Give the backbone structure.
Amino acid sequence: MRFRMMTVAGLALALAGCTTTGGAGSGNAVDAKWLGKPAGGFFAAYGPPVSDVESGSSTVYSWKGGYKTRRIPAEYAKTTDGKRGKQTAPARTVYLSCSVQITTDADYIIRSIRILGDRKTDSGPSYCEEFLGDAKAE
């Protein structure tokens, strides 16, 4: 009986290791677009990886790209007659890029994408979701 319980517990732990957790990279537009697809399509569309490390039957690739400079205009309050009033926020420049870690299996199929470096927006998708996924820009 004890052997049977230990076997069931070991099997449960093994199965739990095969499922994805609700981590930072799950359920976003990048996962929806790229999980289960060949990594060659990703690298052909966005450029080669910076580095790669083999880990058993899988390979972990580090990729960085999507460099963009976005200029955000100054914001002004509106007066009662609808004209531009006092400046509430200065104009600024934001430098954007995206950094991800891609894990592939032996068949070069993407099994996980973890976003490592990203810039969140005030509303809408993050820059990586906007650049790598199907999310619409603001």
User: Anything to note?
Assistant: The radius of gyration is 22 Å. The chain has a mean pLDDT of 80.
